[in-house]
Design a protein that fits this description.
The complex is a heterodimer of chains A (83) and B (156). Chain A has 83 residues and is an alpha+beta fold. Chain A is built from two helices and seven strands. In chain A, strand 4 and strand 5 form a beta hairpin. Classes of the chains: A alpha+beta (83), B alpha+beta (156).
């Protein structure tokens, strides 16, 4: 079993994927923009939504250049609309 | 870090205002300012249902509570005389008129920043706390997306 990264989805992304989590193999530290390309290739249903999605790594907001490490907690979601 | 009382919650039940105010009210507190948001029955946004039947809220709860703590820390930096802070977000299905959110800021006196801090708290909640609402009418539900795109400078 390699490093399978489970990614949580919320709101429009969850609906688009039809599931609350997706996963990809992450064997080495990977920048967010590369990670998103890999995810789009594996989950075509998410491809058009990913470029505008927010990415949280370990429950803090990530930039496209932020590095994701195997074992990190990663979530994808649209800009928030609480209140 | 201070030891002022805090109250952060994501809850499906109706928050008890008296209980929250009591949690913030120490002997040196003489003022609590509370912003209370509720479900509006009509919306004007293009492409969304004009009449809202109810809202459905979803949250990334573990991150949301951490961002609420962050908002309290930002408030204490900006208004050093503000003491206790409460931030509550309802989740699940909420009907028109129901409370959706609550921000309370306690201080010794009313002129010590509580009004401004509560305003800042609700504005910031709408920027960085990972919660989403779906507006539902007879025909469909539409996820609302905010305008603000947090970046790493929004982290502490």
């Amino acid at each position: 079993m390699s490093n399978e990264l489970s990614i949580r989805l919320f709101a429009t992304l969850k609906d688009r994927a039809g599931q609350p989590r997706v996963s990809i193999t992450l064997d080495e530290p990977t920048a967010v923009n590369v990670f998103l390309e890999q995810l789009a290739a594996k989950y075509p249903k998410l491809a058009t939504t990913l470029p505008s999605s927010l990415v949280a790594v370990n429950r803090t907001y990530a930039e496209r250049t932020t590095i994701i490490n195997p074992g990190d907690e990663v979530a994808l979601f649209p800009p928030v609309s609480g209140g | 870090m201070n030891d002022f009382p805090t109250y952060f919650a994501l809850t499906e039940s109706d928050p008890d205002l008296n209980e929250i105010h009591a949690a913030l009210t120490q002997p040196d507190v003489g003022s609590v300012v509370t912003f209370r948001g509720s479900v509006r029955g009509e919306t004007q946004r293009d492409g969304l249902p004009p009449k809202t039947l109810h809202l459905e809220y979803e949250a990334y709860e573990e991150m949301a509570v951490e961002r609420m703590q962050q908002i309290a820390e930002e408030i204490w930096e900006r208004w050093p005389l503000v003491k206790g802070v409460a931030i509550v977000q309802r989740i699940g299905k909420l009907d028109v008129g129901e409370m959706t959110t609550l921000v309370s800021c306690a201080s010794g006196h009313r002129d010590q920043g509580g009004f401004e801090a509560a305003r800042y708290g609700i504005d910031r909640l709408k920027e960085i706390v990972p919660v989403w609402k779906k507006e539902v009418d007879e025909a469909r539900g539409v996820w609302v997306e905010g305008d603000y795109r947090p970046n790493s400078t929004d982290n502490r």
